[in-house]
Amino acid sequence: MTVLDGKQIAKEIREKLADEIKELKQKGNTPGLAVILVGDHPASRSYVLAKERACKELGMHSVLKELPETISEGDLLNCIQSYNSDEQIDGILVQLPLPSHINESKIIEAIIPEKDVDGFHPINIGRMHAGDEHAFIPCTPLGILEMVKKTGEDISGKHVVVVGRSNLVGKPAGQLFLKENATVTYCHSKTKNLKEQTLQGDILIAAVGRPNIITEDMVRPGAVVIDVGVNRLESGKLCGDVDFEAIKSKAKHITPVPGGVGPMTITMLMNNTVLASKWRKK
Ligand code: GUN
Predict the structure, then answer these.
(1) What is the count of structural domains for the chain?
(2) Which atom of ligand 1 is nearest to the CA of 118?
(3) ipTM of the complex
(4) Helix/strand/coil (H, E, C) string of 39-96?
(5) Distance (Å) from CA 258 to ligand 1 centroid
(6) Does residue 16 fall inside a structural domain?
(7) Which terminal Cβ of the chain has fewer Cβ within 10 Å, N or C?
(8) What sign has the CA pseudo-torsion 165, 169, 172, 173?
């Protein structure tokens, strides 16, 4: 069994990105990311700060725009418009979730698709489904794919079972593995006999947001298990969707929480911002 070290894999990718950014800067193309945080949700704040730190470490231009919880939808749209037309900004990310008085779809659709480094805009979703190479792919699914590739396991023809069907993770993750010629099953809260499905998974992706929903009896021996869950227990401890301790000896490869998918997500955001810069300025 190997524990997939997201921090280490992310570090290797970031080293390559840092070289690429250096070259782009020499040509006068410094990749730039604008991150917009609305309100003061502690988890969102810590994610956003980690994104900004990663930009700085890689020598990218970054702007963090903090807006009050009470901001109107119109003012937030104006803020997005200003970054849409800002030549120094290649990527725009609005941290989700947004306060309930703001229409999330409207905000996502206000970002021009060429700067939508999250890959949440319907144009990018469509491009991804069509297999267009200029689609921005959501960062967490991209990070998952990189980690699975790193195991050296062949993906083609494998059965990938995705538990969770969110627009941010589950749905695009399944699409990405389909493109790699896997057979994909999506499971969700209405799936009957979840265990019967998960036991089919050569690769099992858990993206539900419920602590330890994947137990040892649900995992096929020798599976690759990817845990996307980030759940905070009452004790304050972080835990995933997968019962790591019980499953680690049964899986061939497994990701820990923390230190698994999380660091990869931020790295893929940097990767998408570099791509955005290259695609816009070439
Ligand atoms: N909230 C949780 N994950 C994400 C993400 O990947 N992008 C954005 N914009 N918000 C998030």
Answers:
(1) 2
(2) 7
(3) 0.97
(4) CCCHHHHHHHHHHHHHHHHCCCEEEEEEECCCCCHHHHHHHHHHHHCCCCCCEEEECC
(5) 17
(6) no
(7) C
(8) negative
Give yes or no: residues 252 and 149 share one domain: yes
Residue 267, domain member (yes or no): no
* 107, 153: one domain: no
Parent domain of 210: 139-262
- Tens digit of pLDDT for each residue in 87-107? 999 999 999 999 999 999 999
* Whole-angstrom distance, CA of residue 277 vs CA of residue 282: 8
Report how far ligand 1's centroid is from the alpha carbon of 175 (Å).
Answer: 18
Task: Say whether both 107 and 143 belong to one domain.
Answer: no
Looking at the fold, whether 162 and 222 belong to one and the same domain comes out as: yes
Taking only the tens place, the pLDDT of each residue in 181-197 is 999 999 999 999 999 99
> Residue 237: inside a domain, yes or no?
yes
Look up the pTM and report it: 0.96
Name the residues annotated as catalytic: 51, 95, 118
